[in-house]
Design goal:
Blueprint (H helix, E strand, L loop, with lengths): L12 H6 L14 E2 L11 H13 L13 H15 L8 E4 L2 H12 L5 E6 L3 H9 L3 E6 L8 H5 L6 E7 L11 H14 L2 E5 L25 E6 L1 H4 L7 E4 L2 H14 L5 H13 L1 H26 L4 E6 L2 E5 L6 H12 L1 E2 L1 E2 L14 E5 L5 H13 L3
Parallel strand pairs: 1-11, 3-4, 3-5, 5-6, 6-7
Antiparallel strand pairs: 2-8, 7-8, 9-10, 10-13, 12-13
Length: about 400
């Protein structure tokens, strides 16, 4: 008997990790430090919530079906903002709105791949990308990265076969946090272009990039839309996680293929979420800039505290956006270490085994810390607990 598509992949890692909390008590003087999930738990800022409440009451169209590819005003705003941010000329017809960035990736793969096709993704990878490829009957081809967690295009070229349909990058990276240099991203674009495959680049965390200006020149390349599929999420910048709003920028023909997928899954993106994203883009630039500075300060706090762990044999493999990716010194797999940290240190984080294939032993020595919901003071407490931990 054949198995269903869902049986071809692993359990959702964040949900799996939450089960480690069952039956574990956390004393008042040592509350749980949850650094497992890369999403803000706070609601949108109050002025955005007020605007959303007004939309619910006064805008009847926020409750009904809309265009499959998204609210025209939001598509126009994205096109204008991206044109300005990347020094390019991007038009509304090359923008679609999706129900979160995960759906943008899923729609992209649906428009590119068939059973048995291949997609190259750097490891450690974002696990939901690997899960969707598994359930789509598409082979995940892992591209190992070195100690700096940055992939090399020549290594990817050696993995390309007649079945390769795309290379997928995430920058700033999840889980490693590293910001891919512009030259690296451009090299991957040229590689994909030369081989007639797509380059998918997920920039969910671009609002928290430490660099000023455009992080890459891809939108200024000739015929960029014949190769590039660009993904984005409004969830992180505006705390709209529960409203599921993302975006994809690609060739109009590619978006028409994605429309078939989107129409059969959600019919249209969340109407209230889209309007909230549009309001946020038009009114919250200063607020988002402040959020970026806070995240950059937390990144700095990781660097400030890291010497304490390094003295114990830990290594920092990458840090940026919402993430610090670490190598631990223990003779214990991270798959076993992570549940122990819940019980013995009051820390919930994810093991590196969740970010690599089972055949890759490197994950056993690695851990991901997501600091979206822990400030500088909390980071200091986190490091103190890790320093004191003895397995």
């Amino acid at each position: 008997m054949t198995q269903p598509r869902t049986a071809s992949t692993f359990a959702p890692p964040v949900m799996e990790a939450r089960r480690w909390l069952e039956g574990v008590d956390h004393p008042g003087d040592r509350p749980l430090l949850n650094v497992s999930q890369a999403a803000p738990v706070d609601p949108p800022p109050e002025n955005l919530r007020a605007a959303m409440a007004q939309m619910i009451v006064e805008d009847p169209t926020s409750h009904i079906y809309g265009p499959v590819l998204g609210l025209p005003a939001l598509r126009q705003e994205v096109a204008a903002r991206w044109s300005d941010a990347y020094g390019a000329a991007i038009t509304e017809e090359k923008v679609a709105i999706t129900s979160g960035c995960n759906q943008a990736f899923a729609a992209s793969i649906a428009s590119l791949c068939s059973d048995g096709d291949e997609v190259i993704i750097p490891t450690p990878y974002y696990f939901n990308h690997a899960m969707w490829l598994d359930m789509s009957g598409v082979k995940t081809v892992p591209l190992k990265t070195g100690d700096n967690s940055i992939p090399i295009s020549s290594d990817a070229e050696a993995l390309i076969t007649p079945k390769t349909r795309a290379i997928a990058l995430v920058s700033p990276n999840n889980p490693c946090g590293v910001e891919y240099p512009a030259d690296t991203v451009l090299a991957f674009f040229k590689l994909a272009q030369a081989h007639g495959i797509a380059l998918i680049i997920d920039e969910t965390y671009r609002d928290f990039d430490s660099r000023e200006g455009a992080p890459h020149p891809l939108f200024t390349q000739q015929d960029w839309d014949a190769t590039l599929i660009h993904l984005y999420s409004f969830s992180k910048a505006y705390r709209l996680t529960g409203h599921r709003v993302g975006a994809v920028v690609a060739a109009p023909g590619r978006l028409r293929e994605m429309e078939k997928f989107l129409d059969t899954v959600t019919i249209c993106p969340n109407q209230l979420g889209q309007r909230a994203a549009l309001w946020g883009m038009q009114h919250l630039s200063d607020w988002v800039a402040g959020e970026r500075l806070e995240i950059l300060d937390r990144r700095a706090a990781i660097a400030d505290n890291m010497p304490k762990l390094e003295a114990k044999g830990w290594e920092l493999l990458g840090c940026g956006a919402y993430f610090a990716y670490m190598k631990h010194p223990f003779d214990l797999s991270s798959a076993d270490l992570a549940p122990r940290l819940v019980k013995d240190a009051g820390i919930l984080l994810l093991p590196g085994t969740m970010f690599v294939p089972d055949s890759d032993p490197s994950g056993a020595q690695q851990l991901r810390v997501a600091f979206a919901n822990i400030d500088r003071s909390g980071i200091a407490k986190l490091f103190d607990r890790l320093v004191a931990f003895i397995p």
